[in-house]
């Protein structure tokens, strides 16, 4: 019976029917479903591995207080709905943003822009570079903001809010509400990242790992589906300015030497990003294509 059901399952049709409703995951919950649709359910072997290697719940992720920094110097679908806003170097055009979130989005974008400039200055210093170095490369020029809405899931053990991945860009600044769900992978185990009121999660991306020649390491992470909700998060992704899309990049020359040669070959930014956008998150990450 199970084999017959699998043979008759048309995933493409289920995805199309879901997209055609325009209601998103929230619409499924509002309709009163009690079982998670098949398109969201993780493969059986992945669920079995989860039973063998359970998540670790009692480890704290380091928290860094930056309040005084200016004085101190696809295999399955994800259980979420999303809104993507792109902010380039110039101020965003208000008319291009949804009216319902226009004012807070513009204000928050300015805060993130200022914080991003400060963080890239701080990250330049442990690399032995001048504070302005990463900024001068275009790291601070433009970012995208992705808002995720995770409704309560009727069968959270069968699906995920976001599958395992490392962010492909330079730096991610994540704001989340009080509902937990974010996990990071460390030494083969998953650890919870508990929300901190007024705090942001800062993730190193693959691109920063590449240009730092492995001085910085990106982190693999995922988001669980939960029986309570909604969980809401706002991620701001610094991935390089749009004007740099056709330019090659690689490890910063000042960070390489005969004793410490480049560990990555040069790549064109738009081709690198395309490997992430058009590839499944659980498959080979884009950074692996450029390792020497």
The strand order across the widest sheet is 1-2-9-4-7
Number of domains: 1
Task: Give the low-pLDDT segments.
Answer: none
The CATH architecture is Sandwich
H-E order: HHHHHEHHEEEEEEHEEEEH
- What is the strand tally? 11
According to CATH, the fold-level topology is: Jelly Rolls
| Overall pLDDT score | 85
Query: What is the CA-atom radius of gyration, in angstroms?
Result: 20 Å
What is the CATH superfamily label? B-lactam Antibiotic, Isopenicillin N Synthase, Chain
Main beta-sheet strand count, sense and barrel state? 5 strands, antiparallel
State the helix count. Answer: 9
Verbal overview:
This protein is an alpha+beta fold and 292 residues long. The chain has a single domain, classed as B-lactam Antibiotic, Isopenicillin N Synthase, Chain (Jelly Rolls, Sandwich), CATH 2.60.120.330. It has helices at residues 2-8, 11-21, 24-30, 44-52, 69-72, 102-124, 133-136, 206-211, 269-277, and strands spanning 81-87, 143-150, 160-165, 171-176, 182-186, 189-192, 201-204, 221-224, 231-238, 248-249, 267-268. The strands form three sheets. Strands 1-2-9-4-7 form a five-stranded antiparallel β-sheet. A four-stranded antiparallel β-sheet has the order 3-8-5-6, with no helix packed on it. Strands 10-11 form a two-stranded antiparallel sheet. The chain is globular, with a radius of gyration of 20 Å. The model has no long low-confidence stretch (mean pLDDT 85). Residues 71-99 are annotated as: Disordered. Residues 141-241 form the Fe2OG dioxygenase domain. Belongs to the iron/ascorbate-dependent oxidoreductase family. InterPro entries: IPNS-like_FE2OG_OXY (IPR044861), IPNS-like_sf (IPR027443), Oxoglu/Fe-dep_dioxygenase_dom (IPR005123).
